[in-house]
Amino acid sequence: MSESEAERVTVECGLDAAPEKVWRALSIPAYRDAWLLPDGDGERFTAEVVEAVPPHRLRLSWREGDAEGELVTFTLEATPEGGTWLRLVHDRVATPLRVPIPANTNTAMLRAA
Predict the structure, then answer these.
(1) Crossing angle of the two packed helices 19-27 and 29-36, in degrees rounded to 10
(2) What's the pTM?
(3) How far apart are CA 62 and CA 41, in angstroms?
(4) Count of beta carbons in the 10 Å neighbourhood of residue 9
(5) Helix boundaries (H) for the chain
(6) Tens digit of pLDDT for each residue in 73-102?
(7) What phi and psi values does residue 21 have, to the nearest 5 degrees?
(8) I need a labelling partner for 76 at 20 to 30 A (CA). Which of 10, 20, 67, 99 fits?
(9) pLDDT tens digits, residue range 3-43?
(10) Letter string b/e over residues 58-89, b meaning 16 or more CB atoms within 10 A of that residue's CB
(11) 3 state SS of 32
């Protein structure tokens, strides 16, 4: 395995919510932090938008404190059933993100509606 592959984590999953709803949950910092970060960790991390193509692609520079930034890319594709196929690519991982839980069981995603 190459060094670049060792520094990359890719997670893919299907969500019941439409891409516009998932986009909202990812693009509003309070919703994103509640969905992706462990309880109380939102203040330790900062995220700056590097690229935004609503509602299909969001790329963030993700930092914990003064640590070197990591690049997190979310790609959203509509599914035939009306949901979203989410692909998350996290490069230069020091602290992995939590895997998002399905929208129909997550209060932060439900609030993003």
Answers:
(1) 100
(2) 0.73
(3) 13
(4) 16
(5) 3-6, 19-27, 29-36, 107-111
(6) 999 999 999 999 999 998 874 444 455 555
(7) -70, -40
(8) 67
(9) 444 588 899 999 999 999 999 999 998 898 888 876 655 56
(10) bbbebbeeeeebbbbbbbbeeeeeebbebebe
(11) helix
